[in-house]
Amino acid sequence: MYALVDGNNFYVSCERVFRPSLQGRPVIVLSNNDGCAIARSNEAKALGIAMGAPWFQIQRELPDSGVLALSANFTLYGDMSSRMMSIAAGLGPDQEIYSIDESFIGVEGIRDVTRRSQAVRERILQWTGIPCGIGIGMTKTLAKLANHVAKSADRKPGSYPVEFARVANLAALPASDMDAVLQATALGEIWGIGRRIGEQLRAEGLHTALDVARLDPAAVRRRWSVVLERTVRELQGQPCIGFESVAAVKKEIACTRSFGHPIEQLKDLIEAVTDFCSRAAEKLRKQEGHAVQVLVFIHTSPFRTEDRQYSRSVTVPLRRPTADTALIAASAIRGLKAIFEPGYKYAKAGVMLLDLQAASVEQGELGFDNPERDRRPLMSAVDAINLEHGRGAIQLASAGTAGAKRQWVMRQSLKTPNYTTCWADLPVARA
Asked: β-pairing, 37-40 with 2-7?
């Protein structure tokens, strides 16, 4: 049996913890460079603001709606997520953190799991200020669906029975009541059914979760795929998706960013690519891996139709598999210089570390020392210092020294303070 703990409108909820005046107001959180909405309060959703809607469009269409936009503060959200997940872990013996705001908990054998879930939900709200919904089911897919039921019953009275609000235990329902819940749920709300498959299913006359749950799994596998067959079996109460208590090792690591302003100079692109390499290499070392190749790309903005368009990428093999920031950055910069063309206004760049393998696998060369092996303590020291003093406390010189004033840095003019991770931003309560 599984429970899914999911923070409500998580990014907005994190902001409201430290700014109670935002309660009851339509609030959205914007993507990088303050581009489009990536989180919306219930009030913003009621205004018809869609996920991914551009901020300039929202301002134009809803000028007098009182919508408050905030730049994404991922440092704050990550820290608040860690706090929420540590409390959610008390619900059961096993935990799988699925995303920044979602966590699967193994609750098999827990007595009165509904009551315990309600208590954990109240504890999360009291200790962190984050409201959440908890769904319980015999499979992960049913737990996901139960979480949707819990949130919908709370936000939209009448969509589901009121007793399912905030905490919904579908595992405790008799078969007839379970069928009623599935019948009230559109198939697009089922975990694992995307837009394309959803369109195909609707074309076959299927519209609800109950319609999907009544399909023959073997026929689904022949007609569609083993992935959809697994979803059908999970809806029928047969566990097919295992519990992952340890996060899977990434097969690729990417760091890409849009620039706050168009970039025309190679030196600015070198600074950006160096910074991206540093972040990607840090993630690679964290999973104890090595990269075999590094891909670097640059391109102009397709939305600036008045500008000349250009897009190129190149993959540069590394001499040895490595996680050394300096070696990765040096290769990426060589690639960047090879694809750079002057006279263009570049809007985005990025790096990807490819063909990842375990750091324990080492390639040697007869008659040559491996300088990368001798630099591992240096990389460990850099990671430790940056962890304690903040990202970028130590960096490669080619990343530049202007800090937040660098030309390529993202726009975050609406960002709130790092309330929980920076002493200077610590909120001060006054009588």
From this structure: unpaired
Q: What is the mean predicted confidence (pLDDT) over 79-101?
A: 94
Distances (CA, A) of 320 to 224, 324, 333: 42, 10, 17
Strands 357-358 and 289-300: antiparallel
- Which pLDDT band, with edges at 50, 70 and 90, does 366 fall under? low
Q: Which residues, 6 or more positions from 271, have their beta carbon under 8 angstroms from its beta carbon? A: 398, 399, 400, 406, 408
Burial (0-12, 13-18, 19+ Cβ within 10 Å), 47 = middle
Quote the Cα angle for 164-165-167, to 5°.
70
Q: Give 351's DSSP letter.
A: E
Lookup: tokens for 346:
């570049």
For residue 92, give the DSSP letter: S
C-alpha span between 169 and 141 (Å, rounded):
13
Asked whether 277 and 360 are in contact (CB, 8 A), the reply is no
Residue among 253, 264, 251, 339 nearest 297 (CA): 339
* Cα–Cα dist 153/158, whole Å: 7
What is the C-alpha to C-alpha distance for residues 183 and 161, in angstroms, rounded to an integer? 13
Alpha carbon dihedral 243, 78, 148, 90, in 10-degree steps, equals: 60
Taking the C-alpha atoms of residue 347 and residue 307, their distance in angstroms, rounded to an integer, is 11
